[in-house]
Amino acid sequence: MNKLAVLSFSLAFILAVTACTAPTTNKSPTEGGKLELSEHRGIDRLLLEAGRTQPPQSTELKLDAAGIAIAGGDILLASKIIDSIESPYVSKNSTRDYSYFAAEVALANDKPLVAIRLLEDQRFQNIALDTEMQVRVGKLRARGYLLGRSYLASARELVYINRLLPTEERPENHEAIFSTLLQLSEKTLQLQAEQSITSEIRGWLSLAAMTKRFQDDPLRQLNALKKWRQAWPNHSAAVIVPASLQMLSRIVEERPENIALILPLKGKLGAIGRAIRDGYITAHYQLTPDSSLTIYDSSSGDILDIIAMATSDGAELIIGPLDREKVTEIAQTKLKVPVIALNRTLNREINRNLYQFGLAPEDESRQVAEQVYREGQLKGLIIAPDSEWGDRNVEAFTDSFTGRGGLIVDSARFTDQRDYSDLIKSLLNVDSSEQRAASLRQITGERFEFTARRRQDIDFVFLLSNATQARGINPTLAFFYAEDIPVYATSHVYIGANSRINAIDMNGIRFCDIPWKLATEDRTRQLIVDTWSGASSRLSPFYALGVDVHRLYPRLQQLKELPEEKIFGLTGILTLNEDNIVNRSLMWAQFRDGKVSTIPMIFDHAL
């Protein structure tokens, strides 16, 4: 190849990979990052030089360029450079850098399985790494397993590198180990602790199991921590205790003793209010029978007067109200004591003494959007009811999904109907296929065999419906040739008591839901189900809300001071944002052969 040809190739390559590198303010994985001008020039020089040379030199030059792009946050450019490398394993250095950088890009693009495969490649495994690189790779593997929901494998990676870290970096690593293990159930933690070979991992597992066992009761948790430290005096977690456990003494000392519960016990919200009350009371008498609880009915009367009465009666903390308009009203007033409202304000009003904890359905729609995008489904259809509830959830899903780079190809709305054939047929463009066949028969005058086809430009369907509607819509999708298209839904498709015959009609639907309905190990939940028949009906999420607000209130300060802190509740994994809004992360499940199964981890082999 002559010099002119080499130069032309180099310039063409630079133009191809840098066309999207103009500085931007967004560093999302799918867009260009904000690189400095000097970084752009450095990348250009490296790529130009790479075009003049052959592997291994050209490979290493491109990897240097990819490293600069990753450091500058331009994942898209880094991905293009890495994809252009034809001989990544041509030397030890290139094998090391290619595996690491390609895995980092994969994680940035929410592809943990790809990242782990790169780091488990035998060619990479055979390379001796210095201490710094072992730490970096360990953190990367831990991130990959964490994204793939293989929590034990992720924690093991962090435990392994802990001894390699400088002393000042170990507290942060301890927090990561502990928070990762807490994603597992107490039963799993205990079982893994009994089977663990190394004492270091066994100690971490037993600490996490103890924490989960007494998560409802800070006092018992504190006493159990003291016993654990006596049993493991030399363990790394006993030397540097996770921050949330360090706060236990304070939590116990500052726990409010006089609680006011303000709920609607009559009227249109009465059934929901009574379910929350009964859930709360069960947790109260099971765990804090010595504290004072006063219940106020908010069905009638001015909410500000009721708040004032509860405060005058000595309440140190108020839980409620439930009605959204009343929550908005108290958000606009000065509150003398902390209030945990059981809904959100209408216009996102905030108040430093108001905590907003509710079961907003829009939160579920946003989580579906996140899950769909993470699974690589980028083009979808929406089927939703023609109602105000449908409008709010379609908007929440669409904003979240398109904001990540997804595309809503089409949507359809339904009303109260039993036959969804026309709606689904039109949405899938099956009627257009039939019309083309009819026109062709008319033109040719010939009769011929014809199989209708659906549209081919979609990856998934997002279904907003209740269980009855889903039983009609899901089989209709399959009938009109969309049986291979995954269907995602919110918790509204699962009541929790579907017969197997009815559930068969929903086979394949993936949905998010609360642990109350999908995980049955919780002792408080079982006591409530045994006591109240309504706890297994459509009201079950509100019984769960009552239990969770009891678990939440002693740990408010813990959640505020430790942004990564979580409460593993019956309504989901609870966190608190800077506006004092409680966010929930739900579980995922799928209808299979008439039964509901929780969706397993991505990396089953890693356990």
Secondary structure topology:
Elements: H1 3-18, H2 37-52, H3 57-71, H4 75-83, H5 92-108, H6 112-120, H7 122-125, H8 131-147, H9 151-162, H10 170-181, H11 186-195, H12 199-213, H13 218-231, H14 236-239, H15 243-246, H16 248-254, E1 258-263, H17 270-287, E2 292-297, H18 303-312, E3 317-319, H19 324-331, E4 339-341, E5 354-356, H20 361-374, E6 379-385, H21 388-403, E7 407-414, H22 421-427, H23 430-444, E8 460-463, H24 467-482, E9 487-489, H25 500-504, E10 510-513, H26 515-518, H27 523-531, H28 540-552, H29 556-561, E11 567-568, E12 573-576, E13 582-585, E14 587-592, E15 595-598
Parallel strand pairs: 1-2, 1-3, 3-4, 4-5, 6-7, 6-8, 8-9, 9-10
Antiparallel strand pairs: 10-14, 11-12, 12-13, 14-15
Overall SS class = alpha/beta
Number of helices: 29
Q: What fraction of the residues are assigned to beta strands by DSSP?
A: 5-15%
The domain count comes to: 3
Largest sheet: 7 strands, mixed
Shape estimate: globular
Question: What does this protein look like?
Answer:
- The chain has 607 residues and is an alpha/beta fold.
- The chain has three domains: 3-184; 255-356 and 523-569, Response regulator (Rossmann fold, 3-Layer(aba) Sandwich), CATH 3.40.50; 362-514 and 590-604, Rossmann fold.
- Helices cover 53% and strands 11% of the residues.
- Strands 7-6-8-9-10-14-15 form a seven-stranded mixed beta sheet, with helices on both faces.
- Helix 25 (500-504) links the parallel strand 9 (487-489) and strand 10 (510-513).
- The longest helix is centred in the middle third of the chain and has 18 residues, at 270-287.
